[in-house]
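TASK: fixed-backbone design
INPUT:
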């Protein structure tokens, strides 16, 4: 794109985010330069032959669905560690998910008292929640002493209650050969065996096979102090978006009562620097956070809607209304 078109693309991105959410997105894109240093400036990347730059802050894409200004249309802004969606119906934003943010390194080198940890709050508040649980609550919430190797949903198009992490090579697009992905993963330090299988403990599989309605701890049954921390943590996620979209898109905004069916689950250690994972689930949303890769210095986090990911319910209603068989 030309510089002006690039600015228009970023302006479009900013329309679906709060000022703090846009600052976070901008940081994530710029962090590609730091990651390039950590990876030794490798030029290899599967699916991009002769591109010459493995980690590129400009390697983000805008896709528009429909015609802007129509009764229903949408767009996606996506790249390595950032995916933002927006679906607009009759001038109102009605879907903003899936929303994915990754940070690598999750703590970048900084000078003196400075600290470059953009998802610090999302991590330490969750650890504080676990730290104040009673023994009985911890027995419900903690399902594995070892965190999974990634968020369980990874890049699946819809929330799957039986999802387990895929092998690292399996997350690349179908047009990328196994050899290409394994060569790239090898350059990052993966062995052939590590690239070809998910290395998660049996507790993760048992969690995936359990009844999703009973996974983890029911937040409504915890004390007011724990619920206050949960609200603070959820606020970190929904405040990435304009406040006027919160109730319409997520069914919740800070200050509302927490969803009565909201559940919290944790895997891994409590100490910083060791792999940790957590998730929130309700009838409306799923939130996942995982910091295990690169010696627990590489975060993947996602906010999903169980009703409107990719505007799925909206499209279904449209087809039912406009394309019903006679």
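OUTPUT:
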């Amino acid at each position: 794109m030309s510089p002006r078109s690039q600015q228009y693309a970023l302006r479009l991105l900013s329309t679906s985010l709060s000022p703090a959410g846009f600052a976070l997105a901008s940081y994530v894109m710029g962090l590609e330069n730091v990651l390039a240093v950590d990876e030794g400036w490798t030029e290899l990347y599967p699916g991009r032959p002769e591109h010459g730059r493995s980690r590129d802050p400009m390697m983000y894409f805008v896709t528009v669905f429909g015609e802007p200004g129509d009764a229903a249309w949408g767009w996606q802004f996506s790249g390595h560690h950032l995916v933002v969606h927006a679906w607009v119906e009759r001038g109102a934003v009605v879907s903003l998910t899936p929303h994915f943010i990754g940070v690598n390194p999750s703590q970048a080198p900084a000078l003196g008292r400075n600290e470059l940890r953009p998802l610090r709050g999302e991590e330490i508040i969750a650890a504080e929640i676990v730290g104040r649980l009673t023994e009985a609550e911890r027995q419900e919430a903690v399902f594995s002493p070892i965190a999974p190797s990634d968020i369980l949903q990874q890049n699946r198009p819809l929330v799957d209650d039986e999802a387990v992490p895929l092998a690292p090579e399996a997350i690349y697009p179908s047009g990328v050969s196994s050899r290409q992905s394994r060569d790239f993963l090898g350059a990052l330090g993966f062995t052939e065996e590590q690239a070809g299988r998910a290395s998660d403990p049996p507790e993760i599989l048992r969690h995936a096979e359990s009844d999703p309605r009973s996974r983890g701890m029911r937040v409504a049954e915890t004390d007011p102090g724990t619920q206050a921390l949960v609200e603070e943590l959820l606020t970190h996620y929904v405040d990435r978006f304009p406040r006027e979209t919160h109730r319409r898109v997520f069914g919740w905004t800070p200050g509302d009562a927490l969803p009565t069916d909201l559940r919290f689950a944790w895997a891994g250690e409590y100490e910083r620097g060791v792999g940790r994972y957590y998730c929130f689930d309700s009838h409306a949303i799923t939130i996942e956070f995982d910091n295990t890769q690169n010696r627990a210095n590489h975060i993947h986090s996602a906010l999903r809607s169980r009703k409107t990911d990719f505007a799925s319910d909206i499209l279904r209603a449209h087809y039912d209304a406009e394309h019903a068989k006679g």
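COMMENT: The chain has a mean pLDDT of 89.
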